[in-house]
Inverse folding.
């Protein structure tokens, strides 16, 4: 969008490139709502106009360093490094849907941005269908133009060729969901299997959507965000080996448009590497199966039982080690991204604890990190129930000058559904950027 179009929206302010304070108040909220970029990162009006209307020539270069990662070993790869085309992706992509057109802008698949946009969802079916495997990984690098909270960017795998039946992940700013879905024309139906209301994609993120057998995973920047074992019977066969993506336009209150995150590169590969925890669980299951088979053989062949039992014991030991690795967990969150003050700071509710029936989730280690600390401060660990009842479950003192405090003293059993956050009880000096990591075991 040119300068003249920008002035129609913003008036004469659109020519004032040095106007400061764009991250303040209502204006900052609108910026963050539209782009998904924290308003504190938008220094002036020209930055905002570039993000909303035009292009920032540095955006594509930010993701070029990580695009090669998803290209390695891919059977299909597209970096959309072609000339701008507002209405088509080219390269054989099959496109459809409603709302703003889907094309190429700034070397990425993005929705066309207009002053008066049309709501809707546009889809693109990958032109490559040559895979001979039911197991698949669909990967995408997100274009750093913004990931707003309302519209969804979707990834599809195990779709039929017409994208009328598929397994999906819907990525919103700050949350995401996984499930199976159908499409009839421009009517979409999403049957949710699982969701994560605290984590999702972000600018320049690498998103990997994986399927092996009936297990599905969403991994973002090498962190497992969602996992599901399907028992609904979604078909796994040669008729469901297509993949693709979709983007959505959503118009907020006062007709402020939001466009879901663009895709700077897209890849499909038949090989699937599960995340470390799931891989450890799978290794444990295989080892346990080997142990059971060895034990059965030992019972049937008493003369050779000594050797067989030794094999069984070794397999059980491997299973125990693998299960122990799978049971380790870690959650990390930012308490304050700037100056540390008394109280809750930026995180009001915190990370939610998931405790399966019959298990215990134990916090055995707390690590606090600061970028600067000139005086002692005391930090409390707060547990908030689903009914929003708060209680202090641990307290740690960080000495003056310490920027990394490892507290190995806790042995805290957290409750299912409770949210864990931090509150600064006292502070004697000047501290900034406080981060908390919780480490423990699931037993």
């Amino acid at each position: 969008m040119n300068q003249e179009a920008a002035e129609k929206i913003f008036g004469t302010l659109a020519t004032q490139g040095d106007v400061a304070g764009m991250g303040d108040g209502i204006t900052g909220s609108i910026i963050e709502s539209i782009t998904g970029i924290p308003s504190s990162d938008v220094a002036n009006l020209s930055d905002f106009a570039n993000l909303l209307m035009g292009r920032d020539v540095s955006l594509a270069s930010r993701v070029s360093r990580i695009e090669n990662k998803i290209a390695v070993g891919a059977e299909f790869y597209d970096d959309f490094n072609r000339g701008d085309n507002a209405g088509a992706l080219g390269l054989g992509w099959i496109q459809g849907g409603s709302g703003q057109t889907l094309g190429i802008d700034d070397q990425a698949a993005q929705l066309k941005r207009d002053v008066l946009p049309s709501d809707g969802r546009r889809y693109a079916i990958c032109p490559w269908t040559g895979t001979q495997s039911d197991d698949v990984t669909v990967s995408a690098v997100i274009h750093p133009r913004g990931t707003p909270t309302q519209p969804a960017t979707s990834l599809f795998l195990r779709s039929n060729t017409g994208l009328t039946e598929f397994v999906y992940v819907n990525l919103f700013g700050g949350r995401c969901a996984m499930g199976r879905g159908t499409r009839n024309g421009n009517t979409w139906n999403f049957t949710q299997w699982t969701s994560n209301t605290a984590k999702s994609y972000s600018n320049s993120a690498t998103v990997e959507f994986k399927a092996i057998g009936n297990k599905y995973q969403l991994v973002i920047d090498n962190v497992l965000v969602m996992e599901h074992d399907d028992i609904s019977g979604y078909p796994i066969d040669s008729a469901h080996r297509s993949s693709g993506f979709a983007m959505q336009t959503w118009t907020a209150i006062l007709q402020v448009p939001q466009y879901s995150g663009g895709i700077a590169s897209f890849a499909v590969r038949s090989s699937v590497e599960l995340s470390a925890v799931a891989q450890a669980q799978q290794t444990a299951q295989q080892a346990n199966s080997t142990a059971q088979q060895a034990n059965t053989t030992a019972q049937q062949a008493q003369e050779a039982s000594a050797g067989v039992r030794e094999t069984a014991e070794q397999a059980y030991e491997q299973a125990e080690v693998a299960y122990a690795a799978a049971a380790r967990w870690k959650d990390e969150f930012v308490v304050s991204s700037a100056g540390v003050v008394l109280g809750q700071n930026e995180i009001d509710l915190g990370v939610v604890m998931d405790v399966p029936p019959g298990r215990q989730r134990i916090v055995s280690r707390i690590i606090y990190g600061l970028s600067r600390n000139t005086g002692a401060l005391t930090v409390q660990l707060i547990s908030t129930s689903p009914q929003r009842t708060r209680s202090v479950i641990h307290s740690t003192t960080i000495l003056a000058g310490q920027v990394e405090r490892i507290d190995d003293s806790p042995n805290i059993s957290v409750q299912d559904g409770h949210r864990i956050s931090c509150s600064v009880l006292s502070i004697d000096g000047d501290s900034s950027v406080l981060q908390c990591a919780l480490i423990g075991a699931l037993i």
Observations:
- Helices lie at 3-10, 25-35, 45-52, 59-71, 276-300, 305-327.
- The chain has six helices and 25 strands.
- Residues 1-23, 33-37, 40-62 have pLDDT under 50 and may be disordered.
